Amino acid sequence: MSHSVGQVAGFAGVTVRTLHHYDEIGLLVPSGRSHAGHRRYGDSDLDRLQQILFYRELGFPLDEVAALLDDPEADPRAHLRRQHDLLTARIEKLQRMAAAVEHAMEARTMGIDLTPEEKFEVFGDKDPEAHAEEAERRWGGTEAYAESQRRAARYTKDDWKRMQAEVASWGERYDALMEAGEPATGERAMDMAEEHRLHITRWFYGCSYETHRGLGEMYVADERFKEFYDSMRPGLAEHLREAIAANATRHGG
Questions:
Q1: C-alpha dihedral, 64 to 69 to 70 to 71, nearest 10°
Q2: Kind and range of the H or E element at 41?
Q3: Taking the mean position of all CA atoms in its chain, how far away is CA 101?
Q4: What are phi and psi of 41, to 5 degrees?
Q5: Cα-flanking dihedrals φ and ψ of residue 172, to 5°?
Q6: Which of 11, 65, 86, 116 is spaced 20 to 30 A from 126 at the CA atom?
Q7: What are phi and psi for residue 227, nearest 5 degrees?
Q8: How far, in Å, are 31, 125, 158 from residue 1 at the CA level?
Q9: In whole angstroms, what is the distance from residue 100 CA to residue 94 CA?
Q10: Would you say 62 and 25 are in contact if contact means Cβ atoms under 8 Å apart?
Q11: What is the pLDDT of residues 78-93, one digit of tens each?
């Protein structure tokens, strides 16, 4: 069975002009001709065209594609293995690019006005504020969220680095507290919960004890927030929730 140049162009998503050009340079010469002299493509021609388009999609120039396909030492499996390796590498690169764009989008959502170099220097593979979209969905219409946005828009690279250092220090000390077996209702845990509340108040918005209780519940109920705190130490989200509640009660909140 053979196919006309128009049919093949439709199959492959290329133009007839492209197929004519491939024929003229010897890259894809159709194996047959009609009685009227029109190009006819067989199954082997379609297989070769598929290989050509794979390499073209990967950015190979036509002369290199021809050299690869006409290599007498190569077999179809070798081409597939090479293409698989190249596509895997490209996918990994695109995934890294997508992650960088995602981080930039989240930073922009929070109003962070940093250069790309500064964003990577400050945040690395962490979010500038975990789950900005979730925060906007939950509190987008509140004054607390608006205040958070206003403050974040003014912060410099050094401000964000200082904030990140505070979070890291707090996490290390809370980890040590749990390692020592301190109960969530104990003085040390409640003091750490109070420090957590004041951190939010200092950097984002006035966090009341009632609001802090709600945050504590969310840190356990929402898997994304739970994962963030449990990454510091397994079980930290649950421990912190109880410490927040105890601290709020201690202060009459």
A1: 90
A2: strand 39-41
A3: 7
A4: -110, 130
A5: -65, -40
A6: 86
A7: -65, -40
A8: 11, 54, 69
A9: 10
A10: yes
A11: 767 777 787 788 778 7
Q: In angstroms, how far apart are the furthest CA atoms of the chain? A: 95
Residue with tokens 């009227």: 36
Is residue 206 a contact partner of residue 147, using CB atoms and an 8 Å limit?
yes
Count other Cβ atoms within 10 Å, centred on residue 242.
17
Contact criterion met (CB below 8 Å) for 233 and 192: no
* Pairing assessment for the beta strands 39-41 and 3-4 based on DSSP bridges: antiparallel
| Contact criterion met (CB below 8 Å) for 172 and 195 | no
Closest CA to 218 of 132, 143, 140, 134: 134
DSSP H stretches of helix in the chain: 5-12, 16-24, 43-57, 62-69, 76-109, 116-123, 132-139, 143-154, 157-179, 187-203, 209-221, 223-230, 236-250
| 3-state SS, residue 59 | coil
* CA nearest to 79, candidates 49, 121, 34, 118: 49
Tokens for 58, please give them.
């990967």
- Over residues 20-68, the pLDDT tens digits come to 999 999 999 999 999 999 999 999 999 899 889 988 887 788 988 888 8
**What tokens does 79 get?**
């081409």
Residue type, 112: I
DSSP code at position 33? E
Q: Of 114, 228, 215, whose CA–CA distance to 170 is shortest? A: 228
- Supply 115's token pair: 């250069």
CB 51 within 8 A of CB 79: yes
